[in-house]
Amino acid sequence: MDVDSTVNAIKSMEIRGAGRIARAGASALADFAGSYEGDDSKGFMIDLMAAKAKILDSRPTAVSLWNGVHATLKGVEGCGSVEDAKRLIIANAERFNEGSVNAVKTIGEIGAKRIQDGDVILTHCNSSAALSVIKTAFRQGKKFKVYATESRPWRQGILTVNDLAKEGVDITLIIDSAVRSVMKNVTKVFVGADTITSHGTLVNKIGTSQLALAANEARVQFYVCSETYKFSPMTLFGDMVTIEERDHEEVAKAGELDPRVKIFNPVFDSTPSKYIDGIITEIGLISPGSVYHVMTSQLGDDIFKFIGD
Ligand code: RUB
């Protein structure tokens, strides 16, 4: 898919979920490189930077997109020709996308060890990493029940329940405001991540922090399922995560409300690290306090490139 179609598909949520948008961003840059005609390096870099900016602009909250784009463009400034740059971008995108798909599989294998017979699981929105954990445990023959929230306003929970039902999982859909009520029966919560900050705060679908509070009150374990490319290098240098606000029509249809009514539609929220029992990543089950060490060791000296990026 080319850059413009990818950007439109991400904006309209045809492509959604932090992992998927990261892979789509990487693939769009590979498509750009593959279809570029011309051999003027300067012109290529100008067009490439414009494509990068468009892709990064498509959704603001998930750092996975930013990390996917940067992984795809890594080393491009050092290329001696357009042909070299094109080859590098295509190879980087393939590596990122393959690593991303494998990470979700590994997270499933690690996270499934935390699920036992008799568990009652709660999940929120539609996270491929969280679903990988649940499906892996189910395929291992474990017997458990799952509750999934509807996740208003976009109702990603419908995708989750249909996907798990097809798999054969015992799945119950609840409305978002039923979370505290069902929490008394829940034994473990598994959610995904859009961004995790250097101090271990989780940014995920709006309502995640409510689940975490209710889980904490009921002494229920709360796990985040997240590839390490959802860790945000910019937060190390004090940058805040932008919380996306979406169209008001997602909340109420035109004409439904008195014109004096205002609508506020933030689609992500922040869950402080103290409510998180563990982050299940492709490199293992880590504490929120380890995010800093993972980021700095994975990026090495490259981390300083991200001051003010
Ligand atoms: C999706 C959402 C998911 C994370 C993780 O929000 O919040 O929990 O993106 O998903 P939206 P994954 O539907 O607005 O994109 O584990 O698939 O990367």
Question: Span between N and C termini?
Answer: 27 Å
Structural class: alpha/beta
Strand order, main sheet: write it out.
Answer: 3-2-1-4-7-9-10
Helix proportion range: 40-55%
Arithmetic mean of pLDDT: 96
The largest sheet, given as strand count, sense and whether it forms a barrel, is: 7 strands, mixed
Give the overall form: globular
The count of helical stretches stands at: 10
Radius of gyration: 20 Å
- Extract low-pLDDT stretches: none
Bound molecules: ribulose-1,5-diphosphate
| Percentage beta strand | 5-15%
Task: Explain what you see.
With 309 residues, the protein is of the alpha/beta class. The protein has ten helices and ten strands. The strands form two sheets. Strands 3-2-1-4-7-9-10 form a seven-stranded mixed β-sheet, sandwiched between helices. The chain has a three-stranded antiparallel β-sheet with strand order 5-6-8, with helices on one face. Helix 2 runs parallel beside helix 4. The mean pLDDT is 96. The chain binds ribulose-1,5-diphosphate. Ribulose-1,5-diphosphate binds at residues 16-19, 62, 125, 127-129, 156, 192-194, 204-205, 267.
Short description:
The chain has helices at residues 3-11, 18-35, 41-57, 63-73, 82-112, 128-139, 157-167, 179-183, 208-217, 291-299, and strands at residues 120-123, 145-149, 170-174, 188-191, 195-196, 202-205, 221-225, 268-271, 278-281, 284-286. With 309 residues, it is of the alpha/beta class.
